[in-house]
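Example 253, ligand sodium ion.
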Amino acid sequence: MKLENGLRTAIENEQLTLHYQPVVDLQTSKIIAVEALLRWEHPELGFLSPIEFIPIAEKTGAIIPIGKWVLETACRQVKQWQSIGFHDLSVAVNASIRQVNEKGFPMAVENILHETQLNPRFLDIEITESLMQNDTISGVVFKQLKAIGVKISIDDFGTGYSSLSVLSYLPIDRLKIDRSFVKDMLEHSKTDSIVRTIIDMGNHLDMKLVAEGIEEEEQREALRQYGCHFGQGYLISRPLPASELEVLLREQK
Ligand code: G
Ligand code: G
Ligand code: MN
Ligand code: NA
């Protein structure tokens, strides 16, 4: 109840911030994108993870203004990084089911892209696979988003309940291999086979593959060899405040 009330005023009280985790090209190690990850600095409880408050925000509807704030802040930030020389940098933004299903979500995305002047192809909307069960997201929304020109990723791929058939009829650009697979792939040969199979499948479907949760050099190397295009994880960098992420960007120029 208390969290609920605070959430409504978190934006105006400037308690929300975004951290950014770099996504690198596994062949070149160059940062090609950042994933925006929301943090709420609660006046009494300190920094709260989205896991703790997104479900409440979904229930109360606060997710709608919060989701817009996240999109707008992330797009503006990446546009700014592009303008100082990181021309091809993309941004991935997590969207929740209620947000995507809200009437006017594609229009809101379009408006934010217009306001921030970010080229749509640099925005990647991540939708968690577990939220796609039972066709909870209408194919129409996907098509509208594609018409705008943004990219669509399936987050936490392999852990949800969606059937593989959605991959054939929804316009999906990227699969993000859930970090539970990456975590176990070196120890369990069956998990390693699953990772390779996801990568092969994604490649056959002309999708890009992003591995999450890379913590060890051997994982990075195996994923690279298997043909996974991109990766993120603590081995490369934790999610960072914008100013610190900018330092990483400058270092690789
Ligand atoms: O960084 P990490 O602990 O913060 O993220 C925890 C979970 O919260 C992840 O599943 C991530 O996808 C989700 N998440 C992070 N930022 C956002 C956001 O802006 N919106 C939504 N809906 N989920 C987010
Ligand atoms: O569900 P989603 O992929 O959006 O979740 C992102 C979450 O994963 C964030 O909480 C982020 O902090 C976390 N994360 C990113 N890299 C790593 C990693 O290498 N190891 C672990 N354990 N978590 C990670
Ligand atoms: Mn994500
Ligand atoms: Na994920």
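Summary: The radius of gyration is 18 Å.
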